[in-house]
């Protein structure tokens, strides 16, 4: 059985095709510039479903496919994806009837949804009602749902909410000190995001620690273009840095993170800026882009810092310092800490940020191995970068949000789904292996044999 997952942005659709029976990723891809003109698709096939069913893998990687293709609507984009994955030359399934379920990422589920759900008209109507809580994300997610339901009307579809993971937060953690009317009438509270990533990392970290999730306390740093920190207590979300929207918390690619709310009123009074203009600037022109004035990509900033650019150096220091402040506050909130996890693009590949975020924490039992940290650049393995002197473990875990979406979609269709504290995911097993990453790791080790020395060991 094949499951398709879709992550729809305002002008893009990211997808993965997964064979549930053989546990193989068949293909991944991305449609860009949807609705904007000059749109295109990049498609990375890995193995055809027929070969996977026979336990065969291609002797050579399947050729990647890329092409310009106008997609004025999300429906066009999803039709393009379906035509691509069923194409006789570079497709990975014979026809669309092979697709038995579709999982959709939804950024904001509001206070109503604490789990993933099967999509119907009531669900889409509820999500449309709270679109104002995530105006940059939810409308695109909903367009993707409507488009997929139009193209695949008989296929069960699942909404996987980023916010669902955080519904276990205690009231003292999610309540803002604002007028009660705002909370009751306008649903103002902390919701948190990156839930699928935090769920995956919590379960995997528990395996690496040799503990049950219910006995595990973690601080997980999901650092990418969007970034947030999650305090996990006894295996569930206890507090998180993002709030009502994904704007609060850490310094991000183009988002400001924490600021004094008075800044907004100062700009509106002093410059005559409208609320929409301030919102756009805080979401699209701030973060590391705002600090450097030039770059939103941390790789560009790292290269510039190495060449002596003072703004780039300052940017790294600010970002690392903000993460460290959250680590410290969440240690106090948790009381006991088993491990710190770095994940997502920068978390997995950015030794500078990891070093700055954990520096000078030896008195708290946290010490990174600097040599391992510098060498830990791998998207295919879980790495242990803990110093032998550290009481708290420090892991780099490649996240897998698509697998969570896939498993939730299957379980909802199968009728076996439950809240994550009652449901066991495949990646909670000591014997779990991601086939695609295992193959990638084999290639990585040919080039970087030293990685083998600090691949995290399962007790």
CATH architecture of the largest domain: 2-Layer Sandwich
Q: What gross morphology would you assign?
A: globular
For the report, how would you describe the main beta sheet?
A: 8 strands, mixed
Low-confidence segments, ≥5 residues, pLDDT <50?
Answer: none
How large is the share of residues in beta strands? 15-25%
Number of domains: 2
Helix content: 25-40%
- The chain-level mean pLDDT equals 93
Tell me how many strands there are.
Answer: 14
Tell me the Rg in angstroms.
22 Å
Task: Explain this structure.
The protein is 37% helix and 17% strand. It is an alpha/beta fold and 459 residues long. The chain has 2 domains: 2-161 and 403-428, ATPase, nucleotide binding domain (Nucleotidyltransferase, domain 5), CATH 3.30.420; 195-397 and 431-454, Nucleotidyltransferase, domain 5, CATH 3.30.420. The strands form 2 sheets. It has an 8-stranded mixed β-sheet with strand order 5-4-3-2-1-6-8-7. Helix 11 crosses helix 12. The longest helix is centred in the C-terminal third of the chain and has 25 residues, at 310-334. The chain is globular and about 55 Å long. 47% of the residues are buried. The mean pLDDT is 93.
Secondary-structure blueprint of this entry?
Elements: E1 2-8, E2 12-19, E3 24-32, E4 40-45, H1 49-53, E5 65-68, H2 74-85, E6 99-106, E7 117-118, H3 121-129, H4 138-151, E8 157-161, H5 171-174, H6 180-186, H7 195-209, E9 218-223, E10 227-233, E11 236-240, H8 262-270, H9 275-284, H10 287-292, H11 298-306, H12 310-334, E12 339-343, H13 344-349, H14 351-358, H15 370-375, E13 383-384, E14 393-396, H16 401-414, H17 435-447
Parallel strand pairs: 1-6, 6-8, 9-12, 12-14
Antiparallel strand pairs: 1-2, 2-3, 3-4, 4-5, 7-8, 9-10, 10-11, 13-14
Helix pairs in contact: 2-4, 7-16, 11-12, 12-14
